[in-house]
Structure formats: structure tokens, C-alpha cells
Amino acid sequence: MQKLLVAVTLLISTITYQAKALQQFVDELPKLPTVYGYWNPKAKSGSDRLTMGMFPTKWKFHRDLRPTNVFAYGVSKDKASVPGPIIEARPGKPTHVTWANYLGDTHLFSSTPKGRAIPTVVHLHGGVQDPQIDGHPLAWFTQKFNDTGPAFKTRTYTYNNEPPAGPGNLIYHDFAIGLARVNVLAGLFGAYVVRDPDQETRIFNFLPEFERHLVIFDRSFSGNGESMTVDPTGDRDVIIVNGKAWPFLNVQPRRYRFRITNVSNKRYFRFHLQLPNQNQAPPFIQLGSDSSYLPSPVRTSQILLAPFETADVIIDFANLRNNT
């Protein structure tokens, strides 16, 4: 296995702002946990009925930062993560998710009315749902559903997993009125994938270990990292992938599939590959965009993603065997 600093570290080399105090490329890219919204016999786990909680917890974004106060999704507090776990579903097979709020009444960035707990509601970005389960901003609810918004209808959301153009990549995130920006900033977002294994086998012939999600966002930290900061301009100086600041990824000399999602508040990312001692970097072969495949693969040397956009790409590292 070669340590090729291309898949993650140089994909984000065009970023304007950098935190000089943090050393880049010292933490390995984490592989995000996956929760199956169906019974997966290979993984021996999963259910079409899930409970996903929102928890106040701590998350270590970098080797040299102390654990940071965050809000995080997870099936339990000890398994909560930033980003939240990937929820994987099957097309046409409903997944029922009960979203549980355990956030209490102390927000990381905002104030709530005295005596009221923090409201949340979950929207599945890119999905097609009935209005009562679409995560309307006024369908918010507090801890134990003690208070609910005027549009609140149900505790359990049923996702039919039928994106308009077939299997694809979606994002779940907080959407509570007046708090969506700071709730997402605190960590309430994650990837949701509708996967058709028969179709994927016919098209890609990939092994699961050669597919990685890259959930990318920007943040700023105060002092030793115990808290994040909110800049009114939205400019933040640390680039984070899968919960780690400027990570690296060891890759083998073969094809990889990357599902790349930008969950920054306002920052656009332009991704490209830049290799040492290599005149010609491998191209991106883009297979899909938001929530669906493209009509046909597109070969490109760079990809531009706005906030909450996704690119589903293949990169072939087979000719880079001698690069490090």
C-alpha cells in the first residue's frame, strides 16, 4: 500500500484560509460508521426501524486539539459522531426513523427562551417525502417531545427511498426554524445513501473497502479547541473531512469511488488532484450528482461543489504505484 497524499489532502489544496497553528496531514481519514436501514445479512446488522438520537458530546477534530463540544447524531451517545453515521437504505424499501432529541436546554452558539429546551427537526436533503415527514422548520420538537412546533405531525419519519432518478446520495441535517444554521454548525448532519447493489455490481464491480465517503466542511476553533467559534461572515479557517482536520488517506494502486459532499455553510470547494513528480494526474470520472446518477459518466480534471452539493466520482490510482 502506498501513502498517496492525493485522495484527500490535495483534493482541498485550493482553500484560501488556513489555520497556521495546526499541522496538516497528521490524522488519518476516518471511515464513517454505517447504520443500515434494512437487514444486512453480510454485516449481520440493520433494521427497517431505526432510532437516531441527537446528543451533546465531545469530538476530537485534530491530534493537537482538545475534544470540542459538539452536537452529534448517533444510535447512542457513545456512538454519536460528527458527521453523523451514514444511513444506508435500499431503493423502494421504506426505512422508518424515530429522531430523538437529547440536547437539553443549553445551546453551544445560541440562546433559547428561558425554560425551553433546544428545538430540532430533521430534513432529508435531496429526498422526496410527504410534507408531514419532510422536516418542515415548524415541525420542531424538544427533548422527549415535551414541546412541538405548529407543523409537528409524527415522531417517526418513513422514508420510501425512491429518489426521482434512482439510487443516490442524500444528506440529513437539522432544519429547525431560527436554529438550522447553528445546529448544523454544532454537528447535526450526516450522509444518507440509497444503494442498489445489483445495479452497482453491474456498473462498477467494486469491493466495499474501496469506496469512501468524504464529508467536507469548514470550522474555526477557539484557544485549544474546546469550542468552535461563529464568525458572522461565515469565514472559517480549518477544513475538516469526516470529522478530522486536513486528514490523509493511504490508498492502494487501483480504482476508488468517493462520494464527496460539501456541508459548509457558505464555502465553495473546487477539487482537483495535484501529484508530486507526476505530470498527468488521473481524472475524476463523475458518476453522480445530488441524489442520482448522471445520464453517463463525465471525465473532468476538477469539480466545483457549492454548499450541500454532492459529487460521486471514481479515481484510478493504478498508474501511481511508485508515487508517495
TrEMBL record:
<keyword id="KW-0479">Metal-binding</keyword>
<dbReference type="InterPro" id="IPR008972">
    <property type="entry name" value="Cupredoxin"/>
</dbReference>
<keyword id="KW-0560">Oxidoreductase</keyword>
<keyword id="KW-0186">Copper</keyword>
<dbReference type="GO" id="GO:0016491">
    <property type="term" value="F:oxidoreductase activity"/>
</dbReference>
<dbReference type="GO" id="GO:0046872">
    <property type="term" value="F:metal ion binding"/>
</dbReference>
<dbReference type="InterPro" id="IPR052152">
    <property type="entry name" value="LPR1/LPR2"/>
</dbReference>
<dbReference type="GO" id="GO:0016036">
    <property type="term" value="P:cellular response to phosphate starvation"/>
</dbReference>
<protein>
    <recommendedName>
        <fullName>Multicopper oxidase LPR1-like</fullName>
    </recommendedName>
</protein>
<keyword id="KW-0732">Signal</keyword>
<keyword id="KW-0325">Glycoprotein</keyword>
<feature type="signal peptide">
    <location>
        <begin position="1"/>
        <end position="21"/>
    </location>
</feature>
